[in-house]
Write a structure and sequence with these properties.
Distance between the termini: 33 Å
Number of helices: 2
Number of strands: 13
Largest sheet: 12 strands, antiparallel, barrel
Order of helices and strands: HEEEEEEEEEEEEHE
Low-confidence stretches: 8-25
Oligomer: single chain
Radius of gyration: 18 Å
Shape: globular
Structural class: mainly beta
Mean pLDDT: 88
């Protein structure tokens, strides 16, 4: 943990960002949002989640992100990130903080995180984050999706995600370079804006050493059904 704190200081993140009492909200009231982007089950009965939550105002937000998967009644893999979010422009913000990986396949990993998120031209939502871990580990994640509104209630959402690692992590079955990519398309029906069931197709592919080290197929396509909601 001491090493990660040193990393955060070197990235320029004030450590008071993680103390709720140190949040300088000025005269703006603090608000919050919890948004479960994906809570779904696959055709082979695995369960996946992806969620975001934040607390703060337009100038400062404490941000939480998490995603992961359960199989056969046990946690397979997942991560959680705690980030300090500050606006960079009208449509973009910077984020810095910590990420913790967990699962049953290998030891947990901790990372310092630094990235940007926002709206690219043509309303693509983008998250790009770089990570620095202990023992010289580095990683990066790029995620983008787009909401295509077919009707007032029917929304088609294509999504792309790529994960890159700077060095081999044999204990967790991760190779260096491009490790995993995911393409998905989900069709949701908004009963209300904050409540929408969906159906979709998710294709996951592992590359290079990662594909060689895992006991799973390099490519996997799954039908999914789930619920998206926020409050």
């Amino acid at each position: 943990m001491k090493r990660l704190i040193v990393m955060l200081i070197s990235l320029g993140l004030p450590m008071t960002a993680f103390a709720m009492g140190g949040m300088d909200m000025g005269h703006e009231p603090a608000i919050h949002l919890v948004r479960v982007e994906q809570l779904e089950v696959t055709q082979d009965n695995a369960q996946r989640w992806e969620l975001q939550a934040w607390y703060g105002n337009d100038a400062h937000k404490l941000w939480l992100r998490s995603e992961g998967e359960r199989r056969d009644g046990r946690l397979h893999e997942g991560d959680v990130e705690v980030l300090w979010n500050r606006p960079l422009s009208a449509f973009w913000s910077t984020q810095a903080g910590l990420r913790h990986d967990f699962g049953i396949e290998g030891p947990s990993r901790e990372w310092a995180a630094l990235g940007v998120q926002g709206l690219a031209p043509y309303w693509f939502e983008v998250e790009a984050t770089a990570y620095v871990g202990t023992a010289g580990r580095t990683a990066a994640r790029l995620r983008t999706h787009y909401d295509l509104r077919i009707t007032q209630r029917l929304v088609l959402q294509p999504e792309l995600e790529a994960n890159v690692y700077g060095r081999r992590d044999a204990e967790n079955g991760i190779g260096s370079g491009l490790s995993e990519g995911r393409m998905a398309i989900r069709l949701r029906y908004e009963i209300r804006r904050e409540l929408a069931p969906y159906l979709g197709i998710v294709h996951t592919r592992r590359f290079g050493d990662t594909a060689n080290m895992t006991n799973e197929d390099a490519g996997d396509t799954q039908l999914v059904a789930g619920l998206r909601f926020w409050f």
